[in-house]
Design goal:
Number of strands: 9
Helix content: under 10%
Strand content: 35-45%
Shape: globular
Radius of gyration: 15 Å
Distance between the termini: 10 Å
Number of domains: 1
Largest sheet: 5 strands, antiparallel
């Protein structure tokens, strides 16, 4: 039976050790987070990071390596602009309950990440 291990303070999701495990064993498929823009102090929404071992695409555009695929689940500042506009959305409010790309440095999640090893 797998044993649950808690990492106390990874700085990013990619800091979780990967030795002898597969991606699906390391982190859950989605992680609750806060989304900030244009700087880390300005929280504009709550969301979820959606991880995959496959190359991700959002609205037909490949996801950049320095971004997460996130869904916006709760609005804090509806009229704030998105870090990257899409053909459909310009503001956080317009992208509510949709997938968007968000720069990794502006995404914060719980510093304790539980995974199975």
């Amino acid at each position: 039976m797998p044993k649950a291990v808690t990492i106390e303070k990874p700085t990013t999701i990619t800091d979780v050790p990967r030795t002898g495990t597969t991606d699906s064993q390391i982190v859950p498929k989605s992680i609750k987070c806060t989304l900030a823009y244009p700087d880390q102090r300005n929280i504009v929404a709550l969301g979820e990071i959606h991880l995959s071992s496959e190359r991700q695409v959002i609205h037909g555009v490949p996801l950049q390596d320095d971004c997460y695929k996130v869904s916006i689940e709760e609005l804090r500042k509806r009229n704030s602009f998105l870090p990257f506009e899409t053909g459909e959305y310009k503001t956080v409010g317009e992208a509510f309950k949709s997938f968007v790309a968000w720069p990794k440095y502006l995404v914060k999640c719980d510093p304790k990440v539980c995974f199975f090893s």
